Request: fold
Amino acid sequence: MIMDSWKNHYDCTGIIEDMKGDQSWRIFRIISEFTEGFDRLSGLCDGISIFGSARLKPEHPYYQKAVEVAGLLAANDFAIISGGGPGIMEAANKGAHLQNRLSIGLNINLPMEQRPNMYQNVSLDFRYFFVRKVMFVRYSMGYVCMPGGFGTMDEFFEALTLMQTHKIYPLPLVLVGSDFWGGLVDWIKTTMVGYDTISPEDLDLIRITDDPQEVLEIMLAHREWKNKQRALHAGKDVAI
Reply:
């Protein structure tokens, strides 16, 4: 039943043929996506990635809050990065666009839901999720997660994992919407900590708020710290 549903949703022939394609050429496509991403985003500083559902409409309160959050950040010289699609992604780019600031969309080719929104002034298209995710991590100094689905959860938990395992420098991971995120955070605190699958201090990596101004203050404080680190390591080959 699941496979039948999957076949109804996708052009299976095209996908299966692509998976059977020449592996060497696929490697070149992957390299080309990395190369374009690094070239187009080279020199970008102080980017904030905003994640959230593609399904929330402009009249939804969280769409409107995402516009407000992005606008506040953009007005304070943060570049805004989104997944480039509709919903919360559109709201994030719109907030930056309204401030006439850098509004970046990292679009992914999907058979449903994803269409580039009109508020990007830098737009990249990706075929591979993992290449796109590298761009988010590489060029973001903070993550803001609005209510979203599996993709938002994926970005949230990947960032947590990379910080927990010291694969990236700490970055603010802010969850906006206590009514949406509260149950998950409570489960992490009680069940994951209770089962000793994570350490209690791992929770320090997460901030949850309903206040756009608090999001801004968190990011401003982190930028101040980051600028000190940049000055400290000036001239050294250290990724901050």
The mean pLDDT is 90. The longest strand covers residues 103-108.
